[in-house]
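DATA SHEET
Item: assembly model
Revision: 1
Owner: S.N.
Input lines:
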Amino acid sequence: MIYYAGPDFLDRVIRRLRSDGYATYAPSEWGWFEVEGHFSEPPTPPPVPPKHVLRKTPSLVLRVKGTRFEYVEPDRTPVALIGIRPCDAFALEILRKVSMFSPTLVTEKLSNLFMVVEECPNPSPTCFCADAGTGPDARVGDLAYMRLGDGFLVRPLTERGKALLVSVGIDELAPKEALETYNDIVNKATKRARIEPSPHHHADELKEATWEDWERASRNCAGCGSCSISCPTCFCFDIREVHEGPDEGGRVVVWDTCLSLYFAAMASHNPREKIPARLRQFVMHKLVWWREQFGITGCVGCGRCTSLCPFNVGIITAVKEVVKK
Amino acid sequence: MMDSVTHKLTPIKAVIADVIKEAEDTVTLVMRVSPQKVPEPGQFAMLYAPLVGESAISFSGIRDGVVEHTVRRVGKVTTVLTSLSPGDVIGWRGPYGKPWPMSEAKGRDLIVVAGGIGMAPLRPVIHRRIDEGEAERTILLYGARSPDQLLYRKELKEWQEAGVDVRLTIDKPHPSWSGRTGFVTELIPEALETAKDPVAFICGPEIMMKVAIGVFEKSGIDLSRVWVSLERKMRCGFGSCGYCQIGPIFVCRHGPTFRADELRCVLGW
């Protein structure tokens, strides 16, 4: 069922969710902001993935006073992500699967998360959600919408989503022409949201890639880690100390990146000392090992690892270099 | 509800009961802790030097109400840990990881190959073998860089007296050493002449373990009976932080003890 909603759709939904106790956040070009009503269309995709809203880091996990260790209760305020893109919504479903193996920094937030997904009529040149099977129309979430003129076409995806629509009085079915327009937009967007060679269709070549292939793929990589910090599924974190006095302070968790030199370094040796090894770790984990670990891909096709890379590397370029030989 | 990361990262208190100096840079910390699960040989704990940091350290001894960790000074955290005194309190959480498969070795000959600090996680294996009356079916091959780097020197004699076949080597000749010299992996072929249809547990520097696996393979030992314990940098110890991943493996959860044939595929050895 697709419903038609007027220009005040976001106002109504957001007000309702807030009165139900949700903290409501929407993405923008500059990050995620708490919103109380209508907001303009976010970028495709927004530069900051939702994991950074669900867990802002550094985040305190332990208070230390001398040799007293105090547990810090994680923030469990229910969050509603409004305008989250389909790829990012799917990424949180992936993190839900990862949480079944071991908790992630966002696990406690996922249990009462509400997602109102903004579908993508205009994928970016680096989007490949159609290859990844995560978009450009919403695959997961509670409610999906697409902006159409002044109004919105709205699809409930869960019972919770449907109940929300009913509670804000949206019950007008979209007219047939609107449905045709919607299908047309989704079809066109799906054609655009593909990349050749598709990162998702070359697992065998990636598995067989040589050191020289990874050297070629990483020749422009600075090892800055922008790819994994902006990746919506990367879950790695570091734990660091904070000091508030001579014997007082605590421990914080911080989102981390396997691209950094120190990430795997031990006193005895560093198994991934060279940049090709670190880029390989990132790409192989997302596209190959993730499936073996969690039964699902680790790459949703948002393209951020390439679009936000200062040197245009990321998964798209790396896979292209590896498979071109 | 699933445990949160925060919950799992909270340490309990461990009181240092005794500190035994093993070498110039190495001590064994005897500590009183009350973990929810009894640790097994091969497992590890996260030792927290308050406001300095945490390190993954394997158990080098497990007794009632007391656990032992042998720590070598190599960085910031281990500098604090190696300078502790009895009565000091640190943070502790664990046990984590997959133990040595003691049941695989039960009733069979066991070759224990240890290099340097790699002796620490194997010490509870020797204790267990002695306790279970299998000392005489146990061969310990133990190598260190120099005589003063050999750990548990007093105990080595006791193990020998209990029936364990202890064979020591140091890397290079040394004035105070009249025993064998050379790498510990060179002792494997001889041990294989004595042992019948053995199981092997190996721990030491990565290159030593790689070589050791090769020697066992060359000698016709099925690598599904050879086990190694791997070191990786760890932050959480329970599969959340992602630090210790190798391919699809989380060393903290799937290891640190691995079957040699399986580990070989992952590391490409």
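QC remark: The longest strand of chain B covers residues 12-23.
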